[in-house]
Automatic annotation (TrEMBL):
Lineage of producing organism: Bacteria, Pseudomonadati, Planctomycetota, Planctomycetia, Planctomycetales
Organism: Planctopirus limnophila (strain ATCC 43296 / DSM 3776 / IFAM 1008 / Mu 290) (Planctomyces limnophilus)
Spans through the membrane: none
Keywords tagged on the record: Signal
Annotated spans, Disordered: 757-776, 797-829
Highest rank taxon of the organism: Bacteria
Name of the molecule in the record: FG-GAP repeat protein
Biased segments, Polar residues type: 807-822
SUPFAM superfamilies according to UniProt: Integrin alpha N-terminal domain
Biased composition (Basic and acidic residues): 767-776
PANTHER family to which the protein is assigned, alphabetical: ATP_GTP-BINDING PROTEIN (PTHR46580:SF4), SENSOR KINASE-RELATED (PTHR46580)
Length: 829
């Protein structure tokens, strides 16, 4: 008797679990959770809707049919949707690393009635919608995506396997998945969501991108269906994750999107697709510490929007990127950034600018001693600087200069290697930079500079040699000149070298017209806090030391904080130190004089370097300072009363070294180059720049919620993309609608499951942990799929009346997984 009653009760619970989730627009009250009990967890199919009538006016226009359930494993992850058996129906995939397999839930064309419930209380019949197929793999899977990776029209599976493997499983025409591509990816990131698929080079073929610790790997698909040799992008951050491929600026080109940095410094990194079938440099956007990032077309306009969850308050923010043509005198809100790749410190990072490839445009050369190479960033007349190409150079190459030393058109690159105790010279030839030819010297160079020492118009090569006897250093300045065939020694008058009275090892050298006499002077730095040695060169290169007392005396900033500048038609030195900056000139009678001084008002200001550059189109250059204490670029205009603050640009955790100026996008305006230890940033003074525009905000009204993730999809088949907020504390699912006229507005809210909780942790249980949107019932409507505990929960979309006529324009699917584009949840981990 008792057993029959238990069976009847279980049947009633299961019938209850298949009740429709919907309500009419004028219904009031709330629902109670009914469903089935699994291991002390009650999964709900009729949910509690705790909303006022005003806030729930849209609830009746959203509905879901009977809940479908598939049991997997507690550790199942990376839920995706794709047609993995080419039958035209969308299937589900999930990774089960505990059994080294990928679970394929293949959608059936015809479903069978549910079987009679099991006598076991916690046993629930698997959904008849799917056939469960187990695909074994050989690795622990770290990330997964799908796409047609051999252009045969079938959707394949790509994954990252521990510790360093990229694997593509090609979908067979029939039979088993036994054909695959496998390649080791050095320095591959082991973080989740480090793999994405999409068309990166506009050839209608699906490519792959793999995030690395210091480099990002691109695998571009060839016309043959094979993958081309890997291409590398140099990262600007060591902490990157959640990579996605999406068109954010509405130009129809795929952009590479990811999170960069960590903690409070986490930002959204974007490399926009360019018309020359390449990706551009990196823009970083501050998204207020995002907990989650979802990209989808929400406003029905070209380009996908950015939907984030603010980790500070759980607020949902809807934003989009707009490309804005700046007016004359306007500065961008952010700089574009270029990475240098693995390793690198201030000691082996040097920069030189000039027309390296003789195309009339300014290029940038950067030394990369850690990799024994130089990086060439060539300028394209349409798209500005490229992403950089590395060319082998001297071991530990730490300093370089560009100059025309032989009188033949074109610039030579002079490179120094302290590690190899050598100097080398090379030039751009045949679309490449050959390995440097060694310059014959008998001593050890420690500093390098170029200058016209005797005023004959030909540039000489200066280098400082150092030797040590006990605790004493001996430093001698030597020079070489080119006779049209080779470098030969240059004499300072009748001397082959000049002994520089340094008290230690030199920090660097800086040459230029410091005194306004149209001749080159030379500063030899001894390090912060010590006076530099200032040398001038007369006829035949005779050396004279200039007194460096006063503002150049003890306590002066070192090489990083000193630059040559013009201020008020005077030439001199711009010296940044602590919270002040000074412009210092030299007077033959009075010596070094302070012409201008500015003190930053903030107590935590730390001015590390400065330069002058024309930015606002008005007479007189602006002064740009790098404030390491506030992590900002500070731009000042000149005024009779001194410097007047004009603009500040946030730089995040940028590791500043020095400034350079030049025209880096061919618009005949000066741009600003900011060099760092592991990256550089460029402020373009003209052109188009991206900005973030906020479209709306939303907060969940239920108590004790923790919005953890977002799902984007059209959940009432009206042609507009909706949002589903996953709450992992009280296990609510909140549907939100967006319209340009009303913004983000609450629609339907229901509870996914209920369970006893003795933990009041803000983030709750972390369940449901993933979710996607896809049509997995074959009716043409987008369904809602969640991964919670060991269950895949499918909420089939039901037909309900829309509050407004459906859009007639073609939908932009939020999760176009069947095409191989991004099809993964957007949790920022």
């Amino acid at each position: 008797m008792i057993q029959r009653e238990m069976e009847a009760m279980l049947q009633a619970i299961i019938r209850g679990s298949r009740t429709l989730i919907t309500r009419s627009p004028n219904m009031a009250g709330s629902w109670k959770c009914a469903g089935f009990v699994l291991a002390a967890v009650q999964f709900c199919s009729i949910a509690t809707a705790q909303m006022t009538e005003e806030s729930s006016r849209l609830a009746g226009y959203y509905g879901f049919g009977p809940l479908e359930v598939m049991k997997l494993e507690d550790r199942s992850k990376f839920l995706h949707s794709a047609d993995v058996n080419h039958d035209g129906l969308i299937d589900l995939l999930a990774v089960d690393n505990s059994h080294n397999r990928i679970d394929l839930l293949l959608q059936r064309k015809e479903t069978t009635p549910h079987a009679v419930a099991s006598r076991e209380v916690n046993k629930v019949q698997q959904s008849s919608l799917f056939e469960h197929v187990k695909l074994p793999v050989d690795h622990e899977i770290l990330s997964l995506t799908t796409g047609d990776f051999d252009k045969d029209g079938r959707t394949d599976i790509a994954y990252l396997g521990a510790p360093d493997q990229l694997v593509i499983l090609y979908q067979p025409e029939k039979g088993t998945w036994n054909r695959k591509f496998e390649q080791r990816v050095a320095d591959m990131s082991t973080a989740s969501w480090s793999l994405a698929a999409g068309d990166l080079n506009q050839d209608d073929r699906t490519d792959l991108v793999v995030l690395g610790e210091r480099e990002t790997s691109l695998f571009l698909q060839l016309a043959s269906g094979q993958m081309a040799p890997v291409q590398k992008l140099l990262n600007t951050s060591e902490k990157m994750g959640l990579v996605q491929i999406s068109d954010l600026n509405g130009d129809g080109l795929a952009d590479l999107v990811y999170l960069a940095g960590e903690g409070n410094n986490r930002k959204l990194g974007v490399r926009f697709g360019r018309g020359n079938k390449t990706l551009g440099a990196e823009f970083l956007f501050d998204l207020d510490r995002p907990r989650s990032v979802t990209l989808a077309n929400i406003d029905a306009q070209p380009g996908n929007e950015i939907v984030t969850i603010d980790s500070r308050n759980g607020r949902i923010r809807l934003s989009k990127i707009e490309m804005e043509a700046r007016k004359a005198g306007e500065l961008p809100d952010r700089l574009v950034q270029f990475g240098f790749g693995p390793g690198g410190t201030a000691k082996d990072r040097s920069v030189a600018i000039g027309d390296v490839d003789q195309d009339g445009l300014t290029d940038i050369l950067v030394s990369d001693g850690a990799a024994s190479r130089v990086l060439l960033f060539r300028q394209d007349p349409r798209f500005g600087l490229d992403l950089g190409t590395g060319w082998p150079s001297l071991k530990g190459a730490d300093q370089l200069r560009l100059a025309n030393v032989d009188g033949v058109p074109g610039l030579e690159m002079i490179v120094q290697s302290v590690a190899e105790k050598s100097l080398g010279v090379t030039s751009f030839r045949g679309d490449r930079i050959p390995f440097p030819e060694l310059i014959s010297i008998d001593t050890e160079p420690v500093a390098l500079e170029m200058a016209d020492l005797d005023g004959d118009g030909q540039v000489e090569l200066l280098y400082l040699e150092a030797s040590k006897s006990g605790r004493d250093y001996s430093s001698k300045l030597r020079a070489l000149t080119h006779n049209g065939t080779k470098f030969v020694p240059f004499k300072f008058g009748d001397q082959e070298s000049y002994t520089v009275p340094l008290k230690g090892r030199a920090e660097g050298m800086l040459a230029g017209d410091l005194t306004g006499n149209n001749r080159s002077e030379l500063l030899v730095f001894q390090g912060a806090g010590k006076s530099p040695i200032v040398l001038s060169f007369g006829d035949q290169g005779v050396v004279t030391e200039i007194n460096s007392t006063g503002p150049l005396g003890p306590g002066m900033a070192g090489a990083v904080g000193t630059s040559i500048a013009e201020f008020g038609n005077a030439k001199g030195l711009l010296i940044s130190q602590d919270n002040l900056v000074r412009f210092v000139t030299y007077d033959q009678a009075k010596g070094w004089q302070i012409v201008m001084q500015y003190t930053a008002p903030e107590s935590n200001a730390r001015l590390m370097g400065g330069t002058t550059i024309e930015l606002d189109g008005q007479p007189g250059p602006e002064v740009v300072l790098y404030d390491g204490g506030l992590s900002k670029l500070r731009v000042y205009r000149q005024a009779p009363e001194g410097l007047v603050a004009w603009k500040e640009i946030d730089m995040g955790d940028f590791p500043f070294l020095q400034f350079k100026t030049g025209d880096f996008n061919g618009d005949h305006q000066q741009d600003l180059l900011v060099l760092g230890t592991d990256r550089m940033a460029v402020l373009y003074s003209g052109g188009v720049s991206p900005k973030i525009a906020e479209l709306g905000q939303f907060e969940m009204t239920q108590e004790k919620t923790y919005p953890a993730d977002l799902i984007a999809g059209d959940f009432n088949d009206d042609g507009w993309t909706d949002l589903a907020i996953i709450d992992t504390r009280s296990q609510y699912l909140q549907l939100v609608q967006y319209r340009p006229s009303t913004g983000l507005e609450a629609a339907l809210s229901f509870r996914v499951f209920e369970q006893k909780s003795f933990d009041d942790d803000e983030g709750g249980s972390g369940e449901p942990r993933e979710g996607i949107a896809a049509d997995v019932t074959g009716d043409g409507r987008t369904d809602l799929i969640l991964l919670a505990k060991d269950r895949v929960l499918i909420y089939p979309q039901d037909t309900v009346e829309s509050p407004e006529p459906a859009r007639t324009t073609q939908k932009t699917p939020a999760v176009p997984s069947s095409t191989g584009a991004q099809a993964q949840p957007a949790k920022a981990r």
